[in-house]
Amino acid sequence: MASGPTTLASVGNTPVIELRQLVPGGCARVLVKLESHNPTGSMKDRMALAVVQGAAAAGRLARGGTLVEYTGGSTGTSLAFVCAALGYPATLVTSDAFSREKRDHMRALGATVVEIPSEGGRTTKELIQRMIDKAGELAAAPGTFYADQFNNPQAAAGYAPLARELWEQSGRRIDAFVQSVGTAQCIKGVAAVLRELDPQIRIAAVEPAESAVLSGGAAGAHKIEGVGPGFVPPMWTAAIADEIVQVSTAQAKEMARRLARDEALFAGTSTGANVFAALRLARQLGPGRTVATLACDSGLKYLSTDLYASASR
């Protein structure tokens, strides 16, 4: 039997680039860690691996047991990938609000996909709750493990290596870190490690302007996939971030398109939101400083959506 590395060994150790074309003169340098270089094209591979391995080690996911989760797509694809590599069946609850590529990718990796219909393809608080409710119902069956990404502490721990990689790749010079908030697990895990390395690092959280619940606003519909669930995530605390930046769907989409055209960085809407906020912070901080953020996933996940569909015509 083969005993060499599996595809799981390719999770992490993603490259970092410095933006050249989009950063005006007189600004801080902006570094982007390309999490799109993970096996499924998403930072969520890190979280999925930590959650599945943690559950298996604790005996909560038995051999032959089925993993159940609700997902905006990238988490589901990452969980399907890890489960396929380790031999676990996966049942994933998602919606037509999220790209067809993500749903097809989950199925290609062998997962059973349950789709909850949306209202006009928009992410809303009510849609996310229906997905969570359906996943909870499915997870009540014997022999299942409910990953529950909003509440699972292993998820945040999965991002600790990302923070250490980014610190070293930056030359140990980061003045601010910017990240959009979905479950809040990524920003929580990364911020905790970066503040251990340098307590002065400024952490900026990003949320959809249309659903600015972290800022005390009302929940609303938006199309920045994977972030802004319409409620304050259980893992979120005000202490995680020094500031919250609101970015609209239109701003996030336009920045994602500009990244593709001007920096050859092909990514999704959450990355567009991250970079929009990072550039704002870079203007505030000025020369000689460093702002770091993430390319959360690949633009290949969005080719059928209105983010890039017009570009292919």
UniProtKB/TrEMBL annotation:
Ranges for domain Tryptophan synthase beta chain-like PALP come to: 10-297
Catalysed reaction, written as an equation: O-acetyl-L-serine + hydrogen sulfide = L-cysteine + acetate
Q: Which organism is it from?
A: Ramlibacter lithotrophicus
Catalytic class of the enzyme: transferase
Keywords, sorted A to Z? Amino-acid biosynthesis, Cysteine biosynthesis, Pyridoxal phosphate, Transferase
Q: Does the entry feature the keyword Amino-acid biosynthesis, yes or no? A: yes
Biological classification of the source: Bacteria, Pseudomonadati, Pseudomonadota, Betaproteobacteria, Burkholderiales
Q: Which InterPro entries match?
A: Cys_Synth/Cystath_Beta-Synth, P-phosphate_BS, TrpB-like_PALP, TrpB-like_PALP_sf
The UniProt entry, under Pfam families, shows: PALP (PF00291)
As recorded in UniProt, its EC number(s) are 2.5.1.47
PROSITE patterns xref list: CYS_SYNTHASE (PS00901)
Q: Which CDD domains match?
A: CBS_like (cd01561)
Homology family: Belongs to the cysteine synthase/cystathionine beta-synthase family.
Name any cofactors this protein relies on.
pyridoxal 5'-phosphate
- What's the protein here called? cysteine synthase
Amino-acid biosynthesis as UniProt keyword: yes
List this protein's GO terms for biological process. Answer: cysteine biosynthetic process from serine
- Name any one GO molecular function: cysteine synthase activity
